[in-house]
Amino acid sequence: MAQSMTGFGSALNEDFLVEIRSLNHRFIDISIKMPPSMNEHEIILRNIIKERFKRGRFDVSITFANNKTPVLKINKELAKEIYNAYRELQKEFSIGGEIGIEILTNYKDIIMEEIQEYKTENLLTAFQEALSDIETMRKREGDLLHDEMKKRVKLLMKMNDDVKKIADTEVVKWKDKFTDRLKLIIDERMIDHERIIQEAAIMADKLDISEELNRIENHLKQFLEVMNNDNSIGKKLEFILQEISREVNTIGYKSGDYAISTLVIEMKAEVEKIREQVQNIQ
Description:
The protein is an alpha+beta fold. The protein has 3 domains: about 5-70 and about 120-140, Ribosomal Protein S5, domain 2 (2-Layer Sandwich), CATH 3.30.230; about 70-110, no CATH class; about 140-280, no CATH class. Helix content is about 60%, strand content about 10%. The protein has 8 helices and 6 strands; from the N terminus they run E-E-E-H-E-E-H-H-E-H-H-H-H-H. A 4-stranded mixed β-sheet has the order 1-2-4-3. It has a two-stranded antiparallel ribbon with strand order 5-6. Helix 4 (about 120-185) runs antiparallel to helix 5 (about 195-205), helix 4 runs antiparallel to helix 8 and helix 7 (about 235-255) runs antiparallel to helix 8. The chain starts with 6 loop residues before the first strand and ends with a helix.
């Protein structure tokens, strides 16, 4: 079943608060913000997301639970080395001035965050729970998109059938119209009906849209089949919509019938509405 790419999930335990947001993206894009002391787990967390999802942008926030304030400490050894280096520079080049605290503040490594104790198991558990939460929301949204797209696809099928019915009479209309115009110019007895039939056959070949209509019907059936798959389907649906749009444009180009042109405009509008919904499907 279709899965949306937008959602939110969170989980809290004794050590961590994990919050994850996902948005639309052509591929999979992951951003993780967490205390620097936990950076060693980033690759593992990224791989977990990639195993469970195929598309979307994921913004992950991991903080210590219960508003634990990180304990900061000064790397005095590093501060001493930096200070002495500046003093030596002053002596060697006879540079005046005072070496103040503002110089040391430019070095971020001087201030370190004391590593807090935590259980890696609690981190992974909270992370998986947050992902399950967001997956539930994405599936729920996906079900709504699935139902809405199914309605629009069935509407497109009906429009396609309506065009078929009109197209069956289009050549006859053209033949009658052409004959009526000839009657205004020459005597009816001088009209070569066999020639008119030949011209009608040539025009019928130019106006024939049966192949396009059949391809649209097949593409729509394929669209419904893909929608019912559990795997990543967004890109496949986008490709099928491109093919449908191409066939609809061809029909609009070939046909000069006002009723068909009106239906073509409506079909284009429906295809665009479906395309907007597909862009949010994994």
